[in-house]
Write a structure and sequence with these properties.
about 15% strand, about 400 residues, TIM Barrel, 11 strands
């Protein structure tokens, strides 16, 4: 039987031994998530009709953000454009009609800056749709406890263990108060949401006279996240605006590796984990020599996911703002169900359109393998659904 649950070790993987304990937490393992009943059914639909409606949608309520982070990869997308209340209602109705299973409130902007954010959480959850939230954390205290309890997860960006480092990378007009509010809100959310993650991007900045980074704060940030009641710390590599990965020096890679080893040994237990994102995992295991050979010409992940924004509809967050791949440039949300079901949308060709590191590359390989079992009439038994945030 074909291996439809392939991992990075199965495809052009690092030859070195992983230098730190592997996480047991699968919530960010997109490859492992492809082996679920709903995913398999969508692939059956795709094989038989050429059309598969998405399982999960990223919903960008606004392009506005009150932070001015110099390293923000979405800085070119930021403005003051919001989805209107009418557009939101149409979108939610479409997601329900298409049997979308999960929605992630995220975006180039801060979703909680939209006045209807809480209403959206409540409405989606009332329709049986699972909801996740990616936020800078500053306004989490504005979410009523009953709405927090409806979230399947919330992930809060921090990137620092000290106020000095926080304001260096995440400057805000509130200054030190912003950092304290975010820490308080991590604790507040942890008391009510089903799962709270803290995000830590390993950031490096080159000034004229020196290079500064936040690597030395990984371990302390893990402690803070755990002490505040979070479920995990997600440590990620820095991306450039074109989504290519930042090239860390070998010395910095060693520092990152050592910080992760120390953090995992000290803080990981049955209630708290440290999840290393696939981009940073490969940087460490390959000692910086990261390469993805995308020899396939279709992105099956984009058949199962969609990114809906105030500026159009896109196949994924990597191509948010890409005019060539905008499925809805006229913002016609009345016809969204037809747009998402139409078999002749502009297709993503990963070998051409995606020269950057893609977090769903291995998931695509797994999906291709699973689809092949269908076309070859081979027996395949998927797992029951357990997490459809693909």
């Amino acid at each position: 039987m074909n291996n439809v649950n392939a991992s990075p070790e199965d495809h052009n993987s690092p030859t070195t031994t992983t230098p730190y304990p592997k996480t047991q937490d699968r919530r960010l393992d997109f490859t492992h998530k492809t082996n679920q009943e709903t995913v398999h059914q969508r692939l059956i639909d795709l094989a038989s009709t050429g059309v598969a409606t998405p399982i999960v949608a990223e919903l960008d309520l606004t392009t506005y953000c009150d932070y001015e982070c110099p390293e923000c990869i979405s800085s070119s997308l930021l403005s003051t454009v919001h989805l209107t209340d009418s557009e939101i209602d149409k979108i939610i109705n479409t997601l329900f009609n298409l049997q979308i299973k999960a929605v992630i409130l995220t975006g180039g902007g801060e979703p909680l800056r939209h006045h209807a954010a809480v209403k959206v959480i409540d409405k989606l959850s009332s329709e049986g749709i699972k909801v996740g939230l990616v936020t800078n954390g500053l306004l989490v205290n504005k979410i009523p406890t009953k709405s927090l309890e409806k979230l399947d997860w919330i992930r809060i960006s921090l990137d620092a263990a000290t106020v000095t480092t926080y304001l260096r990378y995440r400057p805000h007009r509130l200054g030190q108060t912003a950092y304290k509010k975010v820490l308080d809100n991590i604790e507040y959310a942890s008391n009510y949401a089903k799962a709270v993650g803290v995000s830590f991007v390993v950031l490096t900045r080159h000034n004229s006279d020196k290079t500064i980074d936040n690597i030395n704060e990984i371990e302390e940030c893990a402690k803070i996240a755990k002490d505040k009641g979070a479920s995990y710390l997600n440590v990620k590599a820095m991306e450039l605006p074109n989504h290519h990965l930042y090239r860390y020096s070998k010395q910095d890679i060693s520092r990152i590796r050592n910080s992760l080893i120390a953090s995992k040994r000290r803080y990981v237990d049955d209630k708290f984990d440290i999840i290393v994102s696939s981009n940073l995992d490969e940087i460490i295991n390959r000692n910086g020599l990261v390469r993805q050979d995308k020899k396939y010409r279709r992105c099956l992940s984009s058949a199962l996911r969609v990114t809906i924004t105030s500026k159009g509809v896109f196949p994924c967050s990597y191509h948010r703002g890409n005019l060539k791949l905008n499925y809805n440039p006229r913002r016609d949300y009345d016809s969204l169900d037809e747009i998402l079901s139409y078999p002749h949308l502009p297709e993503v060709n990963p070998s051409v359109d995606c020269p950057f590191f893609c977090a769903r590359h291995y998931a695509n390989l797994s999906l291709e393998s699973q689809l092949k079992t269908l076309t070859d009439d081979k027996l395949f038994t998927p797992n029951k659904d357990w997490d459809l945030f693909l």
